[in-house]
Design goal:
Layout (H helix, E strand, L loop, with lengths): L1 H6 L1 H26 L4 H8 L3 H9 L6 H10 L14
């Protein structure tokens, strides 16, 4: 995979984007589970459905900022968006 990323910048970008979505999904799940909340509990607290929370935690989709803000608020957190140097 490292060789392919080095040889193909488009692939590298897609891989990094997918990795970021997975990290975010895992973080949300860990925070939810640490508070002993089910997906249904979090869904009710954010005004959405359990299936929407499951999709969010799957890491396959990039959530909208307003959705992240509602999830963060329900978990007693806040969202902090930063633009950082690319580092590639």
């Amino acid at each position: 995979m490292r060789r392919r990323k080095a040889a193909d910048p488009e692939y590298a970008g897609l891989h990094d984007e997918r990795f970021d979505k997975l990290q975010l999904a895992r973080k949300i799940r860990v925070l939810r589970e640490a508070q002993n909340l089910s997906q249904d509990d979090l869904a009710r607290a954010t005004g959405t459905t359990q299936s929407a929370i499951a999709r969010l935690e799957s890491g396959r989709f990039a959530p909208r900022l307003d959705v992240l803000s509602r999830v963060a608020r329900a978990l007693g957190k806040r969202v902090d968006v930063k633009f950082l140097p690319d580092g590639r």
